[in-house]
Specification:
The chain is 39% helix and 13% strand. It has 416 residues and is α/β, with parallel strands linked by helices. The longest helix is centred in the C-terminal third of the chain and has 18 residues. It is globular, with a radius of gyration of 22 Å.
Length: 416
């Protein structure tokens, strides 16, 4: 392991996956790149996976655990034990610490794969630990606070047995039981509570929700997500139709979007894949909605799809955190229509950068689509410009970097 850069420090950056799988991975990888650019020595720690990006440190990565693979019974049993407490991750982390001490360790998503088993080693070594809260796992065993497509807070007050009662994990009693055991062990050992010095949270809503569930407010620091607006060319002219980008799953409210498209007679384009695709196709045929399914897109192909719409729509029915898709839409000059739930209202300025509607209300969403379809091109362009300006100030790479550097500096002088 090379010596730490004199112009920065050494950052141990930890996440389950080392490729662009979802929003958490995008933040993880972009943060790594950002800190490398300012002279930090970034040491990633993740799980081995065929789609991982190359890394000089991959020899320290742990064995792949991928749900849904046809593993044998002994392997499944070993993986179940690792989900709760990974001895391999702990041993690999010990090897990293033996080679060189990081100045800061920054976690993203580690549960179910790496597990938090290694966190006490960092505390014993005197390494400050920051964790970005990408979801609600610190409170909800199932991490989404969602059941049967609706918000659920049944486990509040330590009643984690409800994850089994309600079979919250894929409708499976064994998987739900495993996650209940995972939560119980982690809380009993204080693996997050006693080892993480500060939690970086992208939305104020998540801070408030976790405080409601018993976490001390002083443990949290608001650190909004970011995009590199300079790398995204905005479109100045209004496009056609409305666009959704993301996973096709029940909590995203896509059935509401399809029904709203039918009611408003506005064309809707859906970018992404997921378990609801066939259901949504059938619903579109049943309602007569004009819906195009583009499948998974990334890079410039995704950016062109966003530039080509009148507005990006996020019709979520669950507690969204701070979707990067909102920031990307703004950076590309498009307004956003979102629902009044989770952290979404924090990211949309009504009438200035987009519109906010009640979740699950197809008629209200249809009215918003109709209104935006009738807006002059200049009005939509003005919303796009306002959104991009907002990104360039509050959600920029520089703002994110400075917030984290200030947080790291406050911790490096002495642990909590």
């Amino acid at each position: 392991m090379p010596a730490a850069s004199p112009s920065g420090g050494r950052l141990l950056s930890i996440n389950n996956y080392h490729y662009r799988r979802g929003g958490a991975e995008v933040v993880f990888l972009e943060q790594n790149r950002l800190f490398e650019e300012i002279g930090w020595d970034v040491v990633p720690f993740a799980m081995r996976h065929p789609r991982n990006l190359p890394s000089a440190h991959e020899r320290h990565f742990v064995e792949e655990i991928e749900f849904g693979h046809a593993y044998g019974p002994l392997t499944r049993l070993r993986h179940a034990a690792s989900i709760i407490y990974s001895r391999e991750a702990r041993a690999r982390l010990r090897d990293i610490l033996a080679e060189a001490r990081p100045d800061v360790a920054h976690l993203h998503n580690v549960y179910h794969h790496l597990s938090p088993s290694f966190l006490p080693l960092l505390r014993q070594a005197g390494v400050p630990v920051v964790m970005t809260v990408h979801d609600l796992k610190l409170a909800c065993p199932a991490y989404t606070m969602l059941r049967d497509g609706h918000v659920c807070e049944s486990c509040k007050g330590g009643r984690v047995h409800n994850v089994v009662v309600n079979r919250c994990i894929k409708g499976s009693l064994p998987l739900s039981g495993l996650v209940m055991l995972e939560t119980t062990v982690h809380r009993t050992l204080g693996l997050y509570r006693d080892t993480v010095d500060a939690f970086a949270v992208p939305s104020r809503f998540y801070i408030d929700k976790l405080v409601e569930w018993g976490w001390p407010r002083e443990r949290f620091v608001h650190v909004p997500n970011f995009v590199d607006a300079a790398a995204l060319r905005p479109e100045t002219q209004a496009g056609d139709g409305f666009l959704y980008v993301g996973r096709l799953s029940p909590e995203k409210g896509l059935d509401t979007l399809v029904r709203a498209g039918a009611l408003s007679r506005q064309p809707v384009t859906i970018v992404g894949t997921g378990p609801m695709e066939e259901t949504l196709r059938a619903l579109a045929a049943e309602t007569g909605a004009d819906v195009r399914f583009l499948g998974f897109r990334t890079g410039e192909a995704l950016h062109e799809a966003i530039r080509g719409c009148r507005a990006v729509v996020l019709p979520a029915t669950w507690y969204e955190n701070a979707p990067i898709s909102v920031l990307e839409a703004y950076a590309l000059g498009r307004p956003v229509i979102g629902t009044r739930i989770g952290g979404l209202p924090e990211m949309i300025r009504e009438g200035e950068t987009g519109a906010i509607v009640p979740p699950g209300d197809a008629e209200a969403l249809a009215a918003a689509l109709t209104r935006f379809a009738a807006l002059p091109s200049e009005s939509l362009s003005a919303m796009g410009r306002a959104g991009r300006l907002w990104v360039e100030t509050d959600f920029s790479r520089e703002a994110y970097r400075d917030r984290l550097l200030a947080l790291y500096a406050s911790l490096r002088g002495g642990r909590r």
